[in-house]
Amino acid sequence: MLQRTLFRASRQVARPVQRIQPAFAPITRATPAIRWYSDAAPAEAKKDAEAADAPNDTAAQLKEQLEKKDKEVTELKDKYLRSIADYRNLQERTKRDVQSNKDFALQRFSRDLIESVDNLERAINTVDPAKLTSENPDLVTLHDGLKMTNSILISTLKKHGLERFDPSAESQKFNPNIHEAVFQMPMPDKEDGVCFHTQQKGFMLNGRILRAAKVGVVNNA
């Protein structure tokens, strides 16, 4: 019983005292509200705008650099192709020059040699066919030897590009590039401009005229 009484007393002591507020609160002067303005928002907006423009600037720079590189590649490719073309042209010219020098290295020697060929042919033609009989066996043997030598010499020269041609034997038309007209003569049975007589045979070295043939040409005009 005593304990219960003490417990109640302790609870009343521990209970907080209620303050009685007056019916009318005193009127106090209101403190005006203060507004603070900050520059943080515009700065952040500016940063956001710059951040948004940054990718565009980077893309423009990359595009400009790419176009510049493409232009450089095009120029280098053009130079490369031109260099290849120049090199191939140089190869072709060098090849032609070497072949030309090879083909005409014996040109001077050939000019001197054809005089000997002419003399050999003249020696053969000076022999009177009427004397080539059994009564003159030595002359027949000599004549046959000269003809054989001439034939072998002409064949050998032909292997090395030196060819002899007879315009009258082939009834060639007169060509001022390979023929030299010595005289003209009317011949009704032949066509105008045909080489009917060969005074001196011509020679060609690898397709190039070395000595023009001296001929007589038909002129019926």
Automatic annotation (TrEMBL):
Keyword list, A-Z: Chaperone, Mitochondrion
Entry function: Essential component of the PAM complex, a complex required for the translocation of transit peptide-containing proteins from the inner membrane into the mitochondrial matrix in an ATP-dependent manner.
Protein name as it appears in the record: GrpE protein homolog
This protein's record includes keyword Phosphoprotein: no
UniProt main location, coarse: mitochondrion
MF-aspect GO terms: adenyl-nucleotide exchange factor activity; protein homodimerization activity; protein-folding chaperone binding; unfolded protein binding
Family: Belongs to the GrpE family.
Subcellular location(s) per record: Mitochondrion matrix
An annotated GO BP: protein import into mitochondrial matrix
A single GO cellular-component term on record: PAM complex, Tim23 associated import motor
